[in-house]
Amino acid sequence: MKKIAFAVTNEDIDFHQTLLEHGADEVIYALNGCAFSGLCGFDLDQVQNLDHCSILCTRLFPQDQLEQLKRLLDAITETKIRHVYFSDPAVVELADEQLKPRLLYRPETLATNALDARWWMEQGIGGVSVSPVLTINEVEDILKKCPDCEVTIHGHLLLSASRRLLLSLYAEEAGLDPQITGHNDLSLKEEKRDYELGIYENGCGTFIYSDFVQESLGDVVKFAADGADRFFIDSVRLSHEETVSALDAYQAVLQGADAARAAQALKDAFAATHYTRGFYGQKTIL
């Protein structure tokens, strides 16, 4: 079995080396003002010299910001940043030829079939991150027809992104402290549901995450055999301990450890976390 790269998001530069020591091949940071993500953001100069560092640049850029985007991409080209995750096609159009092989298309829920994935790979970029809200059969179909894609295997899933500053608007309407938007532990609960969804706001918009953590320990061997090139772990709302425990567990399973036992050990160690197989067994409307 070929070596699978593990890419893990991070919000704490002091934790960077620990993730590498636990087998992360890349540590991913959200770029300030450029990421549709609940992760806290960093400026390029804060992370560009870190070893095995990649960045999220996954927001959409309006026409009047394309010159600014071009300058940013040119600056990234001169760094040792491993990969740049993106969702806006303008990134490919404006990227220098030297940078294109380092681009990874991650439109969150939109990379849903092999034809799309193959088209993006033909643009000369470094890879495509498959939508994490597909069934197991749909993910496998993409991997078999367009190998070398990335699969999101662990973490709370980003279910909704809006450029509107919904928390700020809510705070204003409800007469709440506007500083509410600076909190990273906020949740919302729909009237007809009995669980809470994580919600974040930054300068790029508002982001809503699943109440559950998707766990794929029973699936990673199959994904690897089907042709996956990279595994993505999102640490949003996960502690450092839980993040490295998950990272250790997935690597152990790929090396032959029993997946069911590894999954149960993770659930026992972090009983407060709601682990599920996400959408692998159920179709969505996407």
Explain what this protein looks like in three dimensions.
The protein contains 10 helices and 13 strands. With 286 residues, it is α/β, with parallel strands linked by helices. Strands 1, 2, 3, 4, 5, 6, 7, 8, 9, 10, 11, 12 and 13 form a 13-stranded mixed sheet that branches. A hairpin with a 2-residue loop joins strand 10 and strand 11 (205-215). Helix 5 runs parallel beside helix 6 and helix 9 packs antiparallel against helix 10. The protein is globular, with a radius of gyration of 18 Å. It starts with a strand and ends in a 10-residue tail after the last strand.
What structural class do helix, strand and pairing data support?
Answer: alpha/beta
- Mean pLDDT, all residues: 92
Overall morphology: globular
Calculate Rg over CA atoms: 18 Å
Main beta sheet strand tally, sense and closure: 13 strands, mixed
Distance between the termini: 32 Å
Number of helices: 10
Strand residue content: 15-25%
The parts where pLDDT drops under 50 for at least 5 residues are: none
Count of β-strands: 13
What is the N-to-C order of secondary-structure elements (H for helix, E for strand)? EHEEHEHEHEHEHEHEEEHEHHE
| Fraction of residues in helix | 25-40%
Secondary-structure map with pairings?
Elements: E1 5-9, H1 16-21, E2 26-31, E3 41-42, H2 44-47, E4 53-57, H3 66-77, E5 84-86, H4 89-94, E6 103-105, H5 114-121, E7 127-128, H6 136-145, E8 150-162, H7 166-174, E9 187-188, E10 197-202, E11 205-215, H8 220-226, E12 230-233, H9 240-254, H10 259-269, E13 275-276
Parallel strand pairs: 1-2, 1-12, 2-3, 2-4, 4-5, 5-6, 6-7, 8-12, 11-13
Antiparallel strand pairs: 8-11, 9-10, 10-11
Helix pairs in contact: 5-6, 9-10
